[in-house]
Design brief:
It is a single chain. Strands 6-5-4-7-8 form a five-stranded antiparallel β-sheet, with helices on one face. The chain is mainly beta. The chain contains one helix and eight strands, in the order αββββββββ. It has two domains: 12-57; 58-137, OB fold (Dihydrolipoamide Acetyltransferase, E2P), CATH 2.40.50.
């Protein structure tokens, strides 16, 4: 059985992880100014209000940057080599770090590529948000 690095047990971001289990990408939105944040913050980084809700994001994004790792910095990742980490900008203006799926790696991944959120159940308690090309099913 393989071991998986679990994300930090951060109650502030629990709605995000619960949403991912349901196949929904949730972002924190300030009730004062409407600014979106992820990861969650105690107060809005734009207007500093503390009142916010979690709302469903479109899941549509643009690849801003990516990096392919050929070295496992954690033993749990050794079996995944090489793996690519992408940074996307969601339609809502939030930068999000993840992985890409559904590509004939590596030459198909391009900065500026349109992608959409998809969900991968890793364990019964953990579903990760990944991204796949928006123009593919």
């Amino acid at each position: 059985m393989s071991t998986f690095l679990m994300p930090p047990n951060d109650l502030r971001n629990l709605p995000h992880w619960d949403g991912a289990k349901r196949g929904v990408l949730l972002l924190q939105r300030c009730n004062g100014c409407g600014h979106f944040s992820f990861p969650a913050t105690a107060q809005c980084t734009k207007c500093h209000q503390t009142d916010s809700d979690w709302v469903e994001a479109s899941g549509l994004a643009t690849v801003e940057s990516f990096c392919t790792f050929h070295k496992a910095y954690w033993p749990e990742l050794k079996a995944s080599l090489p793996y690519t980490v992408i940074q996307v900008e969601l339609e809502e203006g939030v930068s999000f770090m993840s992985n890409i799926t559904g590509l004939g790696y590596p030459d198909e991944l391009k900065i500026g590529m349109q992608v959409k959120a998809c969900f991968e159940a890793i364990t019964p308690d953990l579903t990760l948000v990944r991204f796949s090309p928006a123009n593919r099913s």
